[in-house]
Design brief:
- A hairpin with a 2-residue loop joins β5 and β6.
- Helices cover 21% and strands 27% of the residues.
- It has two domains: 53 residues, no CATH class; 50 residues, no CATH class.
- It is of the alpha+beta class and 124 residues long.
- The strands form two sheets. The chain has a four-stranded mixed sheet. Strands 5-6 form a two-stranded antiparallel sheet.
Length: 124
């Protein structure tokens, strides 16, 4: 499901998340968070680009506005489809295998997506 911009009256697709660090008087605009949260505000590219902070505040942009335009990545989509397919083909489709959190190892990263595996599979 596509998330929409949090600004009143804007129905554009959200591409960035705005969060505040009130104690530091800082606002941070970065790539869209994986899931919506009460502490962040989803923004479309136009509102992310035009956002300003009050005098005395600092604005940190973790991605340039041009980088916030969503561009589908076929590699990410294929990796996701393959992962879903493998889970669907698991012997026990009712209860797919769940990795032990103590042995999970990150073997790759692309944007906010992580590729993980069980450490036992790497060494065994």
């Amino acid at each position: 499901m596509m998330r929409r911009c949090s600004r009143n009256g804007c129905g554009e697709q959200a591409v960035a998340t705005l969060t505040y660090a009130m104690a530091e008087r800082t606002a941070v605009i970065g790539p869209l968070s994986p899931s919506g949260s009460r502490s962040g505000y989803d923004l479309c590219a136009r509102h992310a680009e035009r956002f300003t902070v009050p005098r005395g505040w600092e604005l940190i942009r973790l991605a340039a506005p041009s980088e916030l335009t969503p561009v589908p990545d076929e590699d990410d989509l294929m990796a996701l489809a393959d992962a879903v397919r493998r889970i669907g083909l698991a012997d026990d489709a009712e209860h797919p295998p769940t990795p032990d959190p103590d042995t999970v190892v990150e073997i790759g990263r692309r944007g906010h997506l992580r590729v993980i595996t069980d450490a036992d599979r790497l060494h065994g």
